[in-house]
Amino acid sequence: MEMPSLYLFLDPYLIWFYRLTGQPGWNFIIGTSVVAVLALMVGELTSFLASLLVRRHFTQVAGEAKKYQDLSMEALKAGNRPAYEAANKLANEAFGKAFFMQITLGASFLWPIFFVLAWMSYRFADLEFPVPYLHFSLGYIAVFLFLLVAAYFVFKPLKCRIPYFRRIQAMLAASSRAAKEMKSFADLLAPGAEGKR
Amino acid sequence: MRKRGLVILGVLALAVVAATLLWAAPSYASKLSEALAKTPQGTGPGMIHPGAPKGFMGIPGGPHSFWLFYILWGIWVGWIFSSVGAFGGIMAGVGHISVFGLSDYASGFKNTSPALNKLMTDAIRTSNQYLVGLSALISSITYYRMGRLVLPLGLFLAIGGILAGYLVPLLTVGEMNVNLYVGFFGIIVFAVAFVLFYETTPKGQEKKKAAKAAAKAFEEAHIKKTTQVSAEHAKGVQVTHWGLSKISFTFYGQEFSFNPLWPLLGGFVINAISALIGVGGGFLYVPFLTSVAGLPMFIVAGTSALAVLVGMVVNIFNMMVMRHVPVDFLLISTELIGIAIGSVLGPVTSRKIPEIWLKRIFVILAVYVGIGYLTKGFMGHSIFPGM
User: Fold this and answer.
1) B333, A54: Cβ pair inside 8 Å?
2) ipTM
3) Over the stretch B52-64, which tens digit does the pLDDT of each residue have?
4) CA distance B205 to chain A (A)
5) What is the pTM of this model?
């Protein structure tokens, strides 16, 4: 299958990671791990940029959901069922808007993963990895997904040690205060929580 | 309780994955190759010309648009998501079905190569799911972390979702021709059109106004009072009764109850729609739960998010890894770029265009698309152009 021109440009750089050792199996795992990490890093970057651009609107929408959610909880505390149902209905509507905003922000994180998968489909579409003891084999997609999930959990704690991503996290934390305040009720109901609100 | 709930649901999902692993399916490359091998070669309709430039899924002569069009359509979808919400998923499906010509191309093989016709139907469904469902998965993870889980509710939702995520692909992958799929898609579009239309009617608007008035009245009356957090309030969610026909729990001193059959059925139906059509699902859990059990949004958000997580994992694993349904990853990637761009434009335009007018426009669009797809799917041709 012919690659589009962008992939033809990137191919020599990406395939280099698949030729580091003399072992095909290890080459594939190392190369796929590297492209998985690259996809994660690019996804984090574009997700951060998108979050920055929509933070005001998202904060407003999330703030509305929080406001009506808090009001519905106050109504519950006061035993006022009609007020609770009214506030809960409005909280649901606001939550729906925030949910769909998050979906679009999810896209800004996911696109590099599919970009990489598309490149891999040109290179590794016919590869199969037999699973021991089962009459079954995994393709490049399954191997990529496993390594992607592993890379995500490895990258997550390391993010704060990389200066660039540390700055991103600090900026995101500062700009999403309203969304972060929708925390677990365990926090709100803990002893002494009243003074912390 | 959250950790225990997560463990139970994780075990359920793993059980389904393990069960699915026992039934191997042909690999991605061989499924497409087999379907192409069964297709007559030539330049006429319903034929494959091996020398033609490769398009969708690498099929010679398959539909192929300039990459910018995928991004532009993604911008449209992302803009709708960030302006109104639910209708964005429908538009993502419309792009795959009509705008990029995948459905018409697949229809051409209905008689000459039913295997290719059905494989392309599955590819369209799965493309819809990747585009919308994966993004919903990510937002659900966020809400799950923030929310509080009602274990019995989450359990029954997830069981229903897992069943649907396993059964629907098992029964339909490789079995549905594209016209039938388009017809079902039209039915869902009509359902969304109905909901959107109701929200724009005076009655729908009246309900929202009444809720706002009631909430404001309570807020003003309550603003100077501080209610002490009693021991009852501090307990959080407490399940008080487990039964086959009724499960009860208290929250903030109030009792809530539900029949476990409803979340089981609801989880099944919602995830079945998601697995069958590729769109819908995640956003339906919250209104379903609040109307069935009248639960606080906060609890519902976290509980339903967990059900979405589990259901989506099963759907995607089943379609992608087990059934090896092929998709065009480059198409998905470029559309996701567009959706990300559209997400930024939505907040800008929402300040200038009232939401009710957007909904009215989308109602008209939804009725147009719904009628077009229903007639195309069940009569063989759309009565409206462009479908």
Assistant:
1) no
2) 0.79
3) 888 887 788 888 8
4) 12
5) 0.80
